[in-house]
């Protein structure tokens, strides 16, 4: 059984539109999950990176 949208001559089945929207949200969610895994932004890691950059600047005599 296929439900057709009758507004404006749209011939894409309503169910297909819903499935496509769901696939897009799943794809977006998976991409965001991968990026969070690939580029972690933990506060302790960021603090360590800032400390290391400050130490290097101190060794070079750069003040900021």
Walk me through the structure:
This protein has 64 residues and is mostly helical. The chain has one domain. The chain has two helices and no strands. The model has no long low-confidence stretch (mean pLDDT 76).
Question: How would you describe this structure in keywords?
Answer:
single chain; 64 residues; mainly alpha; 2 helices; 67% helix; rod-shaped
Q: In short, what is this structure?
A:
The chain is mainly α. The protein is 67% helix and 0% strand.
Q: Say how many strands there are.
A: 0
The secondary structure category is mainly alpha
Number of domains: 1
Q: What do the pLDDT scores average to?
A: 76
Write the layout of secondary structure elements.
Blueprint: H1 14-38, H2 43-60
């Amino acid at each position: 059984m296929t439900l057709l949208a009758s507004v404006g001559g749209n011939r894409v089945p309503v169910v297909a539109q819903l499935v496509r929207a769901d696939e897009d949200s799943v794809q977006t969610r998976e991409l965001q999950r991968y990026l969070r895994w690939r580029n972690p932004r933990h506060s302790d890691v960021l603090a360590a990176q800032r400390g290391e950059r400050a130490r290097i600047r101190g060794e070079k005599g750069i003040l900021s």
